[in-house]
Amino acid sequence: xxxxxxxxxxxxxxxxxxxxxxxxxxxxxxxxxxxxxxxxxxxxxxxxxxxxxxxxxxxxxxxxxxxxxxxxxxxxxxxxxxxxxxxxxxxxxxxxxxxxxxxxxxxxxxxxxxxxxxxxxxxxxxxxxxxxxxxxxxxxxxxxxxxxxxxxxxxxxxxxxxxxxxxxxxxxxxxxxxxxxxxxxxxxxxxxxxxxxxxxxxxxxxxxxxxxxxxxxxxxxxxxxxxxxxxxxxxxxxxxxxxxxxxxxxxxxxxxxxxxxxxxxxxxxxxxxxxxxxxxxxxxxxxxxxxxxxxxxxxxxxxxxxxxxxxxxxxxxxxxxxxxxxxxxxxxxxxxxxxxxxxxxxxxxxxxxxxxxxxxxxxxxxxxxxxxxxxxxxxxxxxxxxxxxxxxxxxxxxxxxxxxxxxxxxxxxxxxxx
Length: 418
Known about the structure:
The protein is α/β, with parallel strands linked by helices. 50% of the residues lie in helices and 13% in strands. Strands 7-6-5-8-9-10 form a six-stranded parallel β-sheet. A four-stranded antiparallel β-sheet has the order 2-3-1-4, sandwiched between helices. The longest helix has 53 residues, at 315-367. The chain is elongated. The relative contact order is 0.11.
């Protein structure tokens, strides 16, 4: 698939669960606010959208000059990585044009996720676009790109078996808890965080008939909403109390700093077994917690063995999903190809119309034509111009037409970049 880049460019910079460990991804996520300030302050005509999930940190750039801005940002990201991208422990990937579009479509379809078929990422892609549009950083190019990705993701969920399985990072976390604790149904489980991931984890625990669940969050309304007969609602200032008697903790907040610290665990009897599964990025658990006796800490990268189970016996569904992704990627590429040709077509149309009008005025004056005769000449000349330009316009907008764009501009003495 070819994607023109002379006046329109599309660049993706990112790191995911395959290319970089969670400690690198969380540093990139934490530095995103600074990057946003830089882009907002000096981005020119560049469009941009950031996509930050538990599996990835990605930045999409679009417009003329996107490659130049991408190089500057890439240097900045590598510097912030504190050497992680130069010592082999992490890799920053960079995709351009069709490859960037195809990657996002696979992301929205959960084909690039740690847990194949997980549902959260589709909403996260849509939310990233909504935030960017609210900030005014997503223009026509990235809006079309992300809308196409959402469309691809919805098709995959409705047209393949990937959407008919309860697969998510939160469900995988509960599966991991079930292997780490002898009898999860009798365990006291604490969920820290009341967002989508915490809500999904609660449903997974309910299916396993876990009898004692405590939900800890920041807002009383949200905590109360998730509370129930076997769920005790608690606020963040009660976290230490909740942790004191917990057997399992699943943490999924959006806090920019650790919320589970040695101090928060200070009320626990020393050596009492505790399993903590941290699925937040940045991570919710202070690294020092790992040194506490009796405490086992898992992070999102530890879910990989559990996630592999979701890939078993699903190759046919994956192939169907990949075909949908390719269809939608071609659809976006076609839209972009036609969008690239529109300025040149408009410029030629304006030039032809100006010449036509001037010639009509000259003929009317020289021949002394009346109003009725003038209308006939106007209609005839307009039809003639339309018929002469029809085939070149159609060919320019057709697949492969971008190859003729610069020659088209030179032949008609116009520029789509002026």
